[in-house]
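Hi R.,

As promised on Friday, here is the backbone we talked about, encoded as structure tokens. Could you run it through your design pipeline when you get a chance and send me back a sequence?
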């Protein structure tokens, strides 16, 4: 395992798993750039707890506007480009708000709507594309760096035996295809780089709350445990692992 202190960029750092990853990276002494779409009092507290070790950035990188890029660019200019990037953002369901009704994963074909499908693709697929497009501008050919995208077993086509969850499954399958395709391009452009996807397991966060009653005993993991597991897998990765889909235990999964 690579014990050298790293510069880590975490997108979705105020989510349940993203925040746990941020905390764990800091506890291991790494320098963290924590990005979230909305201000987070939890991240502000971490800045006080780990002075000079974490920079919190509020922006939506999927918008690809100059403000988003300038915010992170100024940090990377000061501290150096990230050695590791983790996209911990994602969408599974939407709660009731003043602007739109609750949306849950579709169980039947008739429940698919263009809006919710597009929302899933943007959150679960396009965000990683936008991150990769930005990373693509940062590095020299022989720079070693790692980009890890949080995927899910339900995005595996070969593992789909129960159906349902159309938009989420399709958006994660699209993410997996993006990871595999980009790994081929980056093998030529950045032969020391590694881009991979990981299934973190069902984690006790707001993402999984509506479905936890159906989870088998011992199969719901704390965010802290999932963060430690992801850290172990990420730490052990090499350029030879680029383009693979990992289970949280480090084994490789079928696409």
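Update: got your reply. Pasting your designed sequence below so it's all in one thread:
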């Amino acid at each position: 395992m690579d014990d050298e202190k790293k510069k880590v960029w975490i997108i979705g750092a105020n989510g349940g798993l993203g925040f746990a990853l941020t905390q764990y990276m800091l506890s291991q002494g790494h320098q963290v750039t924590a990005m979230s779409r909305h201000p987070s009092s939890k991240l502000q507290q971490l800045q006080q707890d780990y002075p000079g070790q974490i920079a919190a950035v509020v922006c939506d990188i999927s918008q690809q506007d100059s403000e988003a890029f300038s915010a992170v660019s100024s940090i990377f200019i000061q501290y150096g480009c990230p050695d590791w990037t983790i996209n911990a953002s994602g969408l599974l369901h939407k709660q009731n708000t003043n602007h739109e009704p609750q949306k849950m994963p579709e169980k039947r074909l008739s429940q698919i709507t263009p809006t919710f499908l597009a929302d899933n693709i943007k959150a679960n697929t396009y965000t990683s594309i936008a991150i990769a497009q930005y990373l693509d501008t940062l590095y020299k050919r022989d720079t070693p760096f790692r980009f890890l995208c949080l995927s899910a077993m339900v995005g595996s086509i070969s593992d789909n035996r129960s159906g349902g969850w159309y938009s989420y499954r399709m958006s994660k399958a699209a993410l997996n295809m993006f990871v595999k395709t980009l790994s081929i391009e980056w093998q030529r452009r950045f032969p020391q780089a590694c881009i991979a996807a990981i299934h973190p397991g069902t984690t006790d966060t707001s993402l999984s709350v509506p479905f936890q009653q159906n989870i088998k005993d011992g199969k719901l993991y704390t965010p802290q445990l999932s963060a430690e597991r992801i850290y172990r897998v990420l730490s052990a990765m090499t350029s030879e692992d680029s383009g693979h889909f990992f289970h949280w235990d480090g084994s490789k999964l079928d696409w």
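One thing I noticed while checking it: The chain has a mean pLDDT of 91.

Thanks again,
M.
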